[in-house]
Design a protein that fits this description.
Layout (H helix, E strand, L loop, with lengths): L1 H14 L1 H31 L8 E6 L9 H9 L5 E8 L2 E8 L5 E11 L2 H5 L16 E5 H8 L8 E4 L12 E8 L11 E4 L8 E7 L5 H8 L4 E3 L2 E3 L1 E5 L5 H35 L1 H9 L4 H37 L10 H29 L5 H6 L6 H32 L8 H5 L1 E5 L3 H5 L1 H9 L4 E7 L9 E6 L5 E9 L3 H4 L4 E3 L9 E5 H9 L5 E4 L2 E9 L11 E8 L5 E6 L5 H13 L9 E4 L7 H37 L1 H9 L4 H33 L6 H4 L2 H26 L3 H7 L1
Parallel strand pairs: 4-8, 5-7, 16-21, 18-20
Antiparallel strand pairs: 1-9, 1-12, 2-9, 3-4, 3-6, 5-8, 6-7, 10-11, 13-22, 13-23, 14-22, 15-16, 17-20, 18-21, 19-20
Helix pairs in contact: 1-9, 2-7, 2-9, 2-10, 2-19, 7-9, 7-10, 7-12, 7-19, 9-10, 12-19, 12-21, 12-23, 19-23, 20-24, 21-23
Amino acid sequence: MVLHYLKVALRNLLKYKTHSLISAICLAVGIVCYALVCFFVQEQEKVADLPNCERRLRIAVDQRESPYFRSHEVKRMEEQTVDGLECIAIHSYSIPTEIEVIDDEQRNLPFLIRYEGVNANYFAYNDRKLLHGNRLPEAPDEVVLSQQFARKAYGSKNPIGSIIHLSNPKSISENSIRDFKVVNVVKDNDLRVREADCYFSYEILSNDAISVGGYLSPETDIETLNKNLQSIEWQRDEHTVHPYAYFTMRHDKDWEKAKLAILFVASLILVSGLINFLKFIIQMFYNRQREVALRKCMGSKRKGLFLLLFAEIFWMISIAFLLSLMLTEVAINIADAYIPTHDFPLLSLSAIYAVQFRIYLSLLPICMLVIWFPIRRLRHVSIISQINNNRSRHIFRSVMMCFQLSISIFFVSGTLGVHLVLDEILGHAYSPLTSGEEDDIIALNINSQRMWQHLNPIMTDIRALPEYVETLSMMFNIQNESFFMYTYKKADQSEAQIAYTEGSPNYFKFLNIPMQGKEVGEDAKGTVYVSESFKQQLDKDSVQGMVELNGQSYRIAGTFKALYKESKKEGIIGSAFFPDNRFVNCYIKLAPGTGSGKGIRRITDICRKYVPDTLPLEIRTLADNKQTTQGSIYITQVAMTVLAIISVLLVVLSIYSAISMDTISRQKEIAIRKINGATPWIVAGIFGKSYLAIFLLAFAIAYPLVRIMLLSIDDTPVQCIQGWGWGISIFFSVAFMIFLTTAYKIYRIMHINPAEIIKNE
């Protein structure tokens, strides 16, 4: 019997295969969105499973400008016993450097790594398991490797006792140790987050910021501990500072609220897809009332009708689940290609698939409960009941469509509002280059000691390329809009900030930036170029020839339009450019039409002649900004836009499915109305007024909610969203979208021939 219902359900779905596929895709998109968010929330929840979660503390310095410790300060605190504080765990923040490893063939293989400075308690405090006994670093020249890096550098060989060589000791300030002995390997963590490759003793980090944690003793409270910490003090600059403690890992209400808010937003897409899915199934079932009546005449009970409808839902949800697995792989590949590596967490497809499977199993009983409603409504199916219930049976569908449309308006309004806010915060970046010109410029980051050693032959080979045009060397990354700042004192003695960058003097010519003045040499110390906006301020202050920045005087060599990617920001009055021969980034301009892929391949081949494969190369076009702050913000905006588009597509498909099924099921009614004198516009009103009411109610619910949320965010430049212009544009845009979705089907039903309908009946 079950197989019979499955076959019948599959046959019915194939009659409406286009609508069935659309509904399955909508639900699959909802499953993917919700599953990814659930996965990330679960990963965050795992952090709370660390040992003694309720007693975990963070120790900081009572100085707002610099709440972190330095090495000598931590050393003093570690040596001094503090009542109420247990297991002091120390670690610095992840820092890049270059090391060399001797392999089985006695070759020195260079690697770029990220390291942290830690103490012996760090591993137990963070529940990190060691692979080779309990041996911990006991001297500053000992190091612990991560399991991932040990596999990368040594393969299956045991690295214990081997030596790693620090290629550039200056990368660790004032460090005189170059060779470090490997004493253990720490197992990969279960949180699937990117970790450091090497763990040195914090004692070799004299100037790096260091974080301190620990446990609160069971017999002590936080107030008593802070009183005890007051006995430790030291001088920092002209201030006397003390450490203080606070809880870090307690499951407080703020995290619970944030988690619920994140899951709620993600669930909106899933609910929207599920509404579209169920609405199609149920409405299709209603449209087959004649078939249902015939089945009842043949002896079918409510149980049989329930199994028939559930079989259709089972097929659809199963197809949606399989589609969601495919979409997940596509989404992860796209994210991996466009999200910066350091921002992209390590993902486990098996874990994500497990979340999706649990969602699939949860949807089945939910759908069973929902479909019991139309089954109860159809328990007295007859011709008379079809006429009497023709209008009331759309109430459930209309409520669901209103909720679905509210979700769509919520996402669209929120996305547009966030775009407006970010545009006001960041402004519009100055970019005198076209997208084609940016594609013809290749950015090469000098990121390793080996590359520095062979930079001259590398650049010689690059200049020998037939498509080579010009090189620009820069101290900072020009792809990033985050500039360093200098302080300028105005004539009224108030201070203002200016952005600045450093590089070779051909900066303006290379980037097509208009400049007035003379191009000076790279070694022109004490020389500066100022932007037009900064020059206006200097003219107001009657400053000419020389300008003082950060207490130092510079000769003004010229004026330029603005820095590349500079935007107007509050508190910044302009910018400056300092010609300098120091650099860490090279930008190579190639002949127009070379092609970014071809240029990158050629420069990569040249670099690989001198740089081994163990060292990564950072080569990309100037147009590729995914590794920059602006790129990360852009990706966030794109992600929000994608969610908004998905929600719009779901509601468009839902409305189209509803109007299609509605016009099919009510053809006979409209034919009778037209015979009785109904005009086409009266027919249009019968269908149009219900969708108009749904839209007005949905907008009245969603838009005020979004507006209140955006206006309530702290530090938001609400000038851009205080007006009603963006709300009006959303109102008419969504209204026009609904009109386009329903207009064709309504036009068709307006002009049906009653004779044809009656004849077909």
